[in-house]
From TrEMBL:
Classification via PANTHER family: ORGANIC ANION TRANSPORTER, SOLUTE CARRIER ORGANIC ANION TRANSPORTER FAMILY MEMBER
Gene Ontology terms: biological process: monoatomic ion transport; sodium-independent organic anion transport
Protein location: Cell membrane
GO molecular function annotation: sodium-independent organic anion transmembrane transporter activity
Keyword Disulfide bond: yes
Organism: Mesorhabditis belari
Transmembrane parts of this sequence: 33-58, 78-98, 110-127, 158-178, 199-224, 244-269, 308-329, 349-371, 498-521, 542-561, 589-609
Annotated membrane topology: Multi-pass membrane protein
Domain (Kazal-like): residue spans on this chain: 424-476
Annotated protein name in UniProt: Solute carrier organic anion transporter family member
Tagged with keyword Ion transport: yes
Keywords from the UniProt entry: Cell membrane, Disulfide bond, Ion transport, Membrane, Transmembrane, Transmembrane helix, Transport
Length: 643
């Protein structure tokens, strides 16, 4: 396809247009669909699927993956972090190629890789043999017990390398979506609508993880070894059994297959959309004065551009703010279901469901508010900075909900003694001969609402319902408390009353303000650099955000949570895991971390605002974005398509 253009001398020339289509399919009518609303719809669909896999299914499935492939906590940590490492690894090449490739098609090719990685993640499930739990481990009092360890699960040597390789594919494939995706949204539509467009994109991006939290929690109730084994034959009573693992792989398989269909339309888009020129007629330049430099064609162009960012206080302050925000956000995404579970005594599946219920509406509402707020001020950079600072302050105020505490769960030997006159300690006279070391299967005495780490720690002789193993009678330690001698499976409930509703209400507001910040700060980041440096700045910022934010964020968050642990259990492989946390310390530590992070974000935004200096006459309506023209762009008023 070609078009006729008239140059400044009045001569008619023919210029070849970027075709629409792929794999030999490129009918003329297809170009009519190369408009921004269609592109935005397809891009958002890809963002939903990417979010489901990366920020949703991974978090909900990690426990089942550990059980199925006998992974230690260290290996599962490596598996989870590989995605961020892969993203960081390809950011520099993406920055270098931004002006050399069709960015829309690059996003589509990346989503194809995401689909391949998701399907590859399921392969180890079918390479493995039948799931084994070894000999049944009796957790009641047994004076003849010699070992507490089950027979080890035999695993395929290729399973862990395939899991790592799948994360590499997903990380490399997802990187263009949130680099080129941001820049093309700003590139194809008017700057005055950037905030709204970012709000739509970011709001839809939160739907994916939320759906995965809810759907993934339901999938985990399905037995993972479908067609291979029966859980009852292995002595596993149901999803509540610590040895149960759910059908984690179904979600990845479905999302991986769908990503091929959502990626295919992106492969058909041209480099320039039909309606771009019309949409960007009234755009003006707001570039920081010292960043209005063009290194095109110069040697070491990319390194000079990065040095330009590094020496600019506004750029680095913006990156610092986004890095701090990504650090705390990644920690919350990874651990917030666990936090809810320990603060309010919720089950794992219900904690994930509550997280999804909160994230979906707050993500959409917060992103919409942020986008509309930016649009109200015309996406002017100084005003964007100030509005973001206001959101950060409100976020910190709402974080005070973490100071609200439910009554601490009473656990014998941990925070209440076995006998009122004895000091704390899980080893007592009533269970001294039971060999309870490292057994964990919490039970509750409903008569006095006191929990025990296991039937063994409660001094129980045997399960009263031998088939399910959910109740135990003749529990000597429970009888010593003076009320009853029967215990039932599970922790005793926590009565938080109205307190938990106040907490979740304030937490929802905190999430809303967090999501409102995102389109505001992203819109400001796209304005302060020149058009030619936009992709480089996004990739440069993401390198900092991944290396110093997301990757260490979850690790630091997890380490802080571990400091509130009150009881550790050692596994057969020597690894330790926490089975009980001090809820008060847990909530307070997270509050202090959140407050410090928000203070750093506010300071960084204040520095960015004070050092921002726009180019002269940036508000002059005659100063348009002429330097933003593509080599192959056309004027819709003069275009003439011909075959």
């Amino acid at each position: 396809m070609s078009r006729k253009i008239v140059d400044s001398n009045g001569e008619v020339k023919r210029q070849k247009l970027d075709t629409c289509g792929c794999f030999g399919f490129s009918p003329p009518w297809l170009r009519k669909l190369a408009i921004f609303p269609v592109y935005m719809l397809i891009l958002c669909g890809n963002a939903v699927l990417q979010g489901m896999m990366v920020n949703g299914f991974i978090s909900t499935s990690i426990s089942s993956i550990e059980r199925r492939f006998s992974l230690t906590s260290t290996k599962s940590g490596i598996f989870s972090a590989t995605y961020d490492v892969a993203v960081a690894f390809v950011l520099f090449p993406l920055s270098w190629m931004a002006t050399r490739v069709n960015k829309v098609r690059s996003i589509g090719q990346g989503m194809m890789l995401v689909g391949v990685g998701a399907l590859m993640l399921c392969i180890p499930q079918f390479l493995e043999g039948q799931y084994q739990v070894g000999q049944l481990k009796f957790d009641h009092c047994d004076t003849n017990r010699t070992t507490l360890c089950d027979e080890s699960q035999a695993t395929n040597s290729l399973s862990f390398p395939l899991l790592i390789l799948s994360q590499i594919f997903i990380g490399i494939g997802a990187a263009p979506l949130f680099t080129y995706g941001y820049s093309t949204i700003d590139e194809f539509d008017a700057h005055t609508r950037t905030g709204t467009n970012m709000a739509i994109f970011m709001g839809v991006s939160t739907v994916g993880p939320a759906l995965a939290f809810i759907g993934g929690g339901q999938l985990l109730k399905i037995w993972g070894d479908i067609g291979k084994t029966n859980p009852s034959d292995l002595g596993i009573s149901g999803p509540e059994d610590p040895r149960w693992y759910g059908a984690w792989w179904i979600g990845f398989a479905a999302a991986g297959l769908l990503s091929f269909f959502t990626a295919l339309p992106l492969l058909m888009f041209p480099k320039k959309l039909n309606d771009t020129d019309e949409r960007k007629k009234k755009d003006t330049i707001q570039t920081h004065a010292s960043l209005n430099v063009d290194f095109s064609g110069e040697k070491w162009e990319q390194l000079k551009t990065f040095k330009l960012f590094l020496m600019n206080p506004t750029c680095m302050a913006l990156i610092a703010m986004q890095t701090f925000e990504s650090m705390i956000m990644n920690g919350y995404i990874t651990f917030i279901p666990k936090v809810f579970e320990n603060l309010f005594g919720l089950t794992s599946s219900w904690s994930s469901t509550v997280t999804g219920i909160l994230v979906i509406p707050m993500g959409i509402i917060g992103s919409y508010i942020g986008g509309k707020a930016g649009e109200m001020v015309g996406n002017k950079v100084p005003k964007l900075f100030k509005m973001t600072m206001a959101c950060v302050v409100m976020n910190a105020i709402c974080a005070c909900c973490l100071l609200l505490n439910c009554p601490e769960r009473e656990v014998a030997g941990i925070n209440v003694s076995y006998k009122d006159e004895n000091p704390f300690g899980i080893d007592a006279t009533c269970n001294s001969m039971c060999n309870c070391k490292n057994i964990f299967n919490p039970v509750c005495n409903k008569m006095n609402n006191v929990s025990y780490l296991s039937p063994c720690h409660a001094g129980c002789q045997a399960a009263s319902d031998a088939i399910l193993g959910n109740k135990w009678d003749s529990c000597g330690c429970a009888a010593e408390r003076g009320i009853g001698n029967r215990v039932e499976k599970g922790w005793c409930g926590k009565d938080c009353g109205l307190l938990q509703y106040v907490f979740f209400g304030l937490f929802a507001l905190m999430a809303c303000f967090t999501f409102a910040c995102a389109p505001l700060v992203q819109s400001a980041a796209l304005r302060v650099v020149s058009f030619k440096h936009r992709d480089a700045f996004i990739c440069f910022g993401w390198m900092w955000m991944r290396v110093l934010g997301s990757i260490p964020g979850a690790i630091a968050f997890g380490a802080l949570i571990d400091t509130s642990c009150t009881q550790w259990i050692e596994g057969c492989d020597g690894s330790k895991k926490c089975v009980l946390y001090n809820a008060r310390d847990l909530s307070h530590y997270i509050f202090y971390l959140t407050l410090c992070t928000k203070l750093c974000c506010f300071t960084a935004l204040l520095i960015a605002c004070k050092h921002y200096k726009p180019v002269p006459d940036c508000d002059d309506p005659t100063l348009k974005l002429e330097d933003m023209k593509f080599d192959d762009q056309f004027d819709p008023k003069n275009q003439q398509f011909e075959e």
